[in-house]
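PROTEIN DESIGN WORKSHEET
SECTION A - STRUCTURE
LENGTH: 253
TOKENS:
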């Protein structure tokens, strides 16, 4: 999903691209009853391990949607490692669940489908993963036209890797259970992100339509800036020039 911005970013930064566990070509970890294996805390530890493997103890983070939820937990759990983070088209998970409306539930129906008990959701996905992927991604503002043909082929390939349906569901189940436990513990302790945070949300997306993105992030972080972008949900693919302009300005500071 970063193909339209990665090369340009690499002219100024060392870029490390990471598939979340359960997505892309990463491992499909087995599920557990409490969904710990797909918690954002576990995925954040994956990110720490990857960066240390490449020799980085401190770094900046650019992340979108599911990866942005991991980045939030990464910055919260490892403030010594994350210097700055930019998140695309996402509001805090806890804030989104606490402020869910009927309209949001209809727009983000997959949030509530994927968290249903195993094995039905993953069985339905695995019966035709390409159809599921094209339906979910194609229902957004720009439809499937938002994606470069070779990128869409790659998304479809990864969706057909055995275990992907389970991994997707477990990611969302974790978000609705153990991740909320971790988030509520942070709120109860009065913990906020200390790093500078830049948030970009889609002008034509559900997150900005149904939530006060800046307000929710200011509840969870101390230094927040942000703006809407004239695109749909897949900002890095629909509006790469705007992402690059924001990233160069934010990260080079």
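SECTION B - SEQUENCE
RESIDUE ASSIGNMENT:
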């Amino acid at each position: 999903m970063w193909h339209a911005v990665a090369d340009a970013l690499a002219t100024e930064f060392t870029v490390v691209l990471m598939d979340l566990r359960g997505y892309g070509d990463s491992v499909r970890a087995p599920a557990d009853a409490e969904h710990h294996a797909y918690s954002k805390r576990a995925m954040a530890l994956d990110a720490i391990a990857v960066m240390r493997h490449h020799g980085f103890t401190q770094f900046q983070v650019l992340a979108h949607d599911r990866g942005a939820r991991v980045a939030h937990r990464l910055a919260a759990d490892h403030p010594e490692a994350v210097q700055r983070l930019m998140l695309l088209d996402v509001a805090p998970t806890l804030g989104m669940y606490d402020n869910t409306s009927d309209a949001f539930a209809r727009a983000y129906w997959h949030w509530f489908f994927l968290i249903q008990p195993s094995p039905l959701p993953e069985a339905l996905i695995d019966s035709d993963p390409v159809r599921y992927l094209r339906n979910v991604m194609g229902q957004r503002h720009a439809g499937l036209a938002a994606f470069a043909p070779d990128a869409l082929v790659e998304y479809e390939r990864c969706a057909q890797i055995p275990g992907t349906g389970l991994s997707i569901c477990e990611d969302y189940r974790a978000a609705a259970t153990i991740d909320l436990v971790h988030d509520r513990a942070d709120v109860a302790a009065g913990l906020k992100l200390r790093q500078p945070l830049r948030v970009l949300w889609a002008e034509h997306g559900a997150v900005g339509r149904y939530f006060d993105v800046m307000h929710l992030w200011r509840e969870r972080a101390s230094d927040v800036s942000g703006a809407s972008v004239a695109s749909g949900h897949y900002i890095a693919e629909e509006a790469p020039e705007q992402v690059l302009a924001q990233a160069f300005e934010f990260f080079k500071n």
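SECTION C - NOTES
DSSP finds 15 helices and four strands in the chain.
The longest strand covers residues 193-202.
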